[in-house]
Amino acid sequence: MLVAIDSFVYALARALRPHDSLLLTSDHGNIEDATTMSHTRNPVPLFVVGPAAPHFGAVHDLVGLKQALLAALVDQAHSI
Q: For the chain, which has fewer Cβ within 10 Å, the N-terminal or C-terminal residue?
């Protein structure tokens, strides 16, 4: 399953145009144990590529993710 996800994400990242950004995250940090169907205390994955990526360098939780996403969107709006 992880190989399929890896291939999919790689294809998405390769298809990005120069002004596109890709953000992937999850509300569960349990991909290493598919038998766990509930929330865990494991770190939640965050993958960001593209021009918006610098906005996400200090993200440590969902609150930070929201703030970084809003900042990236405002930045993008100003560049149009």
A: C
What is the Cα–Cα distance from 26 to 73, expressed in whole angstroms? 20
**The amino acid at 74:** V
Question: What is the per-residue burial (b if ≥16 Cβ within 10 Å, else e) of 15-37?
Answer: eeeeeeeebeeeeeebeeeeeee
H or E, element range at 2: helix 2-15
Let me know if 71 is exposed, middle or buried by CB neighbors in 10 A (0-12, 13-18, 19+).
Answer: middle
Is the per-residue pLDDT at 80 higher than 90? no
